[in-house]
Amino acid sequence: MALAVFRAARRAPSIARSSSSLCNRFLRFSAVRYAADVTRDPMTGELTSLPDIEPARLKFIKNTDPRPPPPSSSLVFGQVFTDHMLTIPWSANSGWDAPKIQPYGPLQLDPSCTVFHYAQTLFEGMKAYRDKNGKVTMFRPDMNMKRMNVSAQRLALPTFNGDALLELIKELIRVDKHWIPQEPGYSLYIRPTLIGTQRAIGVGPPNEALLFVICSPVGPYYPQGFKPIALYGTTEYIRAAPGGTGGYKLGANYAPGVVPQKIAAKKGYAQNLWLHGPEHYLTEVGTMNLFVVFKKDNGYIELVTAPLDGMILPGVTRDSVLALAREHISGKSKLTDLPDNLVVSERPVTMGEVKAAADKGQLVELFGTGTAAIISPVDRIGYLGGDVHIPTDPDGMGPVSRVLWKELVGRQLGTIPSEWSVTVCES
Questions:
Q1: pTM here?
Q2: Which residue positions does N6-(pyridoxal phosphate)lysine occur at (predicted)?
């Protein structure tokens, strides 16, 4: 009910003013509900449980100088942002404060904030889609909320009610839904971020934090059709190690990859293939999860990805690929053109195994998966001074990735009915 009141207030002409009676009604309702959700000691009146994120407390400040969305054809990934953003402060003394949807703009942070000195920052990547009838959907956003909480625990940042944050993200999307391009392959990229904002020099759990969400309209990753990429098998650097933070979506995991990426580009490769240990185990490709498809001696087709051993990020697209393949194998949801003799493995794979399979003609394909690209095919890997070549079909894809990509895109856009597609609004 509270969000319904808020939406009505947002549609009214006078919503930008705090004096709006409808906005005040929303805030009064929010305060009553909020007070009922917080536990206080009956003797002292002190809080015994800190407030979690509460959608009913949402405040809205309308951007009075909105911009028209740019032409879809001009979009560059991650460089254009919508008119509004969501912010939710947190403190160790009072818990999560009132959420606020406000004009997109700079954050005011003290130079001593711990995010700047100790990389207390994590983020997620999600997408919203708008079909030709105006219906807006998201793809498996519950998984992003769960992973964000796991990352927060790893950094000693505050955790939160994922369902509550998701409802607020949906409201932000509804506010700026006209920014979502309707052309096929376009979407709204959503970036929830959590940072430590304690104003102090010193390593420890921060007593203040800020959760914010920004949105960016984006086009298809391959606007001219699939173009397989070349990888450089990186042995000089590693992305993650056992017991480290590779399995979490932390800002600190990404900046150290820039120098190895520049080295790979200088050698003529598009991305790094992160190899680990003296055995050169395949872990991830660039910022994506990695899949390899082998043809086994017994004729079976094996779809392989590295196990979630703490070094591998549990990607939403990774999980979706595995789920689709396993549902096909079990007969629960057969996918046309996907081999019936398919097996799925989450196991370690070495570059030695990949090279040997390529030499014997048993390497079917290799591809990365992630939110931005969905599926990214690979046609060669630079390894120890030579190239390992990987088959691709004329359309740039392979026989397994093509089928999985079509199914994933269909479910994301809603053209294939799926419980993974979560409705934000009908129009």
A1: 0.89
A2: 249
